[in-house]
Design goal:
- By secondary structure, the protein is an alpha/beta fold.
- The protein has a single domain (about 15-165), classed as Aldehyde Dehydrogenase, Chain A, domain 2 (3-Layer(aba) Sandwich), CATH 3.40.309.
- It has helices at about 20-35, 45, 75-85, 100-110, and strands spanning about 15-20, 40, 55, 70-75, 90-95, 115-120, 160-165.
C-alpha cells in the first residue's frame, strides 16, 4: 500500500503495529521497507524496538506523497481506532488480521469511505471499484449542492474483505 506508488492519495502514510507483536514484527517490517527505499519515522515506543527517525505529531497528520512512512505502536484494535479517529483522512483505512471479531470491530468503528480487511488501500480508485474513469474523490459525507433528489443525500461506506491482495 506504500511502495508501489507512494505519491497517490490511496497510498499508506502510517503503519500502526499492535504492541503485542511489535517486538517480532517491527524488525522484519523495517528490513522490508528499507529494501524498498522507504524512509521510516516512528513514535518513541516504536523507536525502542527499531532504529528509525523520530515522528512528530504533525507527521501523523501528513500526506507525504513520497516514499516516507510513519510507524506507531498501538494497544490493539482500540488503539488503532483511536489513532485513526484523530489522524485518519476519511479516505481509506485497512487492517491486517486473522481475527474476524477484530476485523468487524475495525470495519464498523472506522469512519472512512473505504475500509479494508487484509487488502491494500491502493484499491480505492474509481476504476478498481468498477465506476469507470475516476473524475474526483470526496471524503465528505455530503457533497451535493443545490436541488437534489434522494440519491444526492446518499453517502457510501465500502467494506472490503481480502486475503492479502495488493495492487
Amino acid at each position: 500500500a506504500k511502495v508501489d506508488r507512494p505519491g497517490v492519495c490511496n497510498a499508506m502514510e502510517t503503519l500502526l503495529v499492535d504492541r503485542a507483536i511489535a517486538t517480532e514484527a517491527l524488525p522484519k517490517l523495517k528490513t522490508a521497507f528499507e529494501q524498498a527505499h522507504t524512509e521510516l519515522k516512528g513514535c518513541d515506543e516504536t523507536r525502542e524496538v527499531i532504529d528509525i527517525s523520530p515522528a512528530t505529531e504533525e507527521d501523523f497528520d501528513t500526506e507525504y506523497l513520497a516514499n516516507i512512512l510513519n510507524i506507531r505502536t498501538v494497544d490493539g484494535v482500540d488503539g488503532a481506532i483511536d489513532h485513526i479517529v484523530r489522524f485518519g483522512s476519511g479516505h481509506s483505512e485497512a487492517i491486517v488480521t486473522e481475527n474476524y471479531t477484530t476485523a468487524e470491530a475495525f470495519l464498523n468503528a472506522v469512519d472512512a469511505a473505504a475500509v479494508y480487511v487484509n487488502a491494500s488501500t491502493r484499491f480505492t480508485d474509481g476504476g478498481a471499484f468498477g465506476f469507470g474513469a475516476e473524475v474526483g474523490i470526496s471524503t465528505n459525507k455530503l457533497h451535493a449542492r443545490g436541488p437534489m433528489g434522494i440519491e444526492g443525500l446518499t453517502t457510501y461506506k465500502f467494506k472490503i474483505y481480502g486475503n492479502g491482495q495488493i495492487r
